Amino acid sequence: SAPERLLTVAGLRVSYRGIAAVTDVDFHVDAGELVGIIGPNGAGKSSTMHAIVGAVRASATTLEFAGRGLAGQPTERIARRGIALVQEGHNVFGRLTVRENLRLGSTARASSDGLAEDLRWVLSLFPILDEFADRQAGLLSGGQQQQLAIGRALLAAPRLLALDEPSLGLSPTAVDTVFASIAAIRERGTAVLLVEQRAQQAVAAADRTHVLSEGRITMTLGPEHANDSALLMKAYLGS
Ligand code: ATP
């Protein structure tokens, strides 16, 4: 049977004060897929992500999640319907402990069913969160804070995890940890929408990666293109 269509985006447009940041973007994510969006600074990646979760105003011919429209819905309702966003930067509550941050993630779940199992899984994915459960989140390293932000999002039990540049500003080891966790999350069945500037790693990890340039999708790459550096370069330069 055909995989379930989770997210459908067609004719997406985002403008700021009349200036288009995203123009006519089309793509989809099926259940369990990992879809990448890459492109240079200012290409419209974050705007696309924010439009999906209702954080910026957008227009679209189709913007649907699990067969129902997302347009005009408040961000909180979209979260409850199964999309969790991890924003760019390390979005943790620095004064709260790791455990408290994780607990906040679980408050966004549609149901408490499976919470204990999800928590065990998150702590096995990111053992440092178990070790530092009682530490203030603000005292963690950047890489550890990113693990916490992803762990918190997972405890909302999303069907689609939207990650906005999760590797930004991390050490090489921390970047590897983040990418390994993304593979494991997808392996467990959660679909992932991954916005990245690290083209090679994103293309290697994703089922499809859309190249965004000046608000439009200019190219779509498969994992077989991950080592074609000439193509990736061309994708970035938009030529
Ligand atoms: P980055 O990697 O720098 O986050 P991006 O690909 O995510 O880039 P966006 O952040 O979506 O790109 O920005 C797309 C365009 O929209 C840019 O020209 C940016 O300056 C503009 N823009 C983004 N947010 C706003 C805003 N709140 N108000 C006005 N212009 C904005």
From TrEMBL:
InterPro entries: AAA+_ATPase, ABC_transporter-like_ATP-bd, BCAA_Transport_ATP-bd_LivF, P-loop_NTPase. PROSITE patterns: ABC_TRANSPORTER_2. One of its GO terms (biological process) is L-amino acid transport. Keywords: Amino-acid transport, ATP-binding, Nucleotide-binding, Transport. Signal peptide: none annotated. It comes from the Bacteria. The keyword Nucleotide-binding applies. It holds the Pfam family ABC_tran. GO terms for molecular function: ATP binding; ATP hydrolysis activity; branched-chain amino acid transmembrane transporter activity. Residues 7-239 form the ABC transporter domain. Belongs to the ABC transporter superfamily. This is Amino acid/amide ABC transporter ATP-binding protein 2 (HAAT family). It comes from Leucobacter luti.
